[in-house]
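# step 3/5: fold
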Amino acid sequence: MTQEVRSSAGAVRSVSEESVSAVSDRRLQEAVHRALADSNHPALTGAKVRIDRGRVQLNGLVPSYYTKQIANAAVLNVNGVKGLSNHLSVLPR
C-alpha cells in the first residue's frame, strides 16, 4: 500500500507504508532512548530498544524491579508508543 507525502518544498510523492513506518519507528526509538535517559536511572541508558510499528520491546539488565517499573512508565509516556514488551531482567542480589 502507498501513501502520499508532501515534502517541505510542497512536492507530493508516493511512498510505501513500510518506509513511512521505518522512519516513524526510528524517531520513536530516539524518543524512547531520550525518555529512558531522562529518567535519571543510569541502568536504563544501556537498555536495548527495538521498535516495530510503534510497539516497543526492551531488553537488558536492571538492578531492581523498581528500575524496571520506571522503564515502563518512561516508555509508556512517550507519544506514539502503541505497546510495550518489557523484557528487562532484574539482576540477582
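# step 4/5: annotate
The CA atoms of residues 27 and 80 lie 10 Å apart.
# step 5/5: archive (pending)
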